[in-house]
Amino acid sequence: MKKKLGLLALWVAALYGVSYALFRASNSEIWEKDGRRYVIFPKEQVALYYFFRPIAYVDGAITGIGFHIGPHQ
Question: Percent of the chain, pLDDT > 90?
């Protein structure tokens, strides 16, 4: 039973990571003002920001990418 739960947790973590990687690849841009890359979360879907927030902090610490809700202005 513990093995099945561990395998399920591993699959959920893998799906979470892959879904964030796909989201990051399709929603990142370089801001002209500072030359840094940012993951842009849609302003209309703030739930995505909160869902991906833990992995975005890890991503930012490792790669230096920033994240932002809504487009830069």
Answer: 77
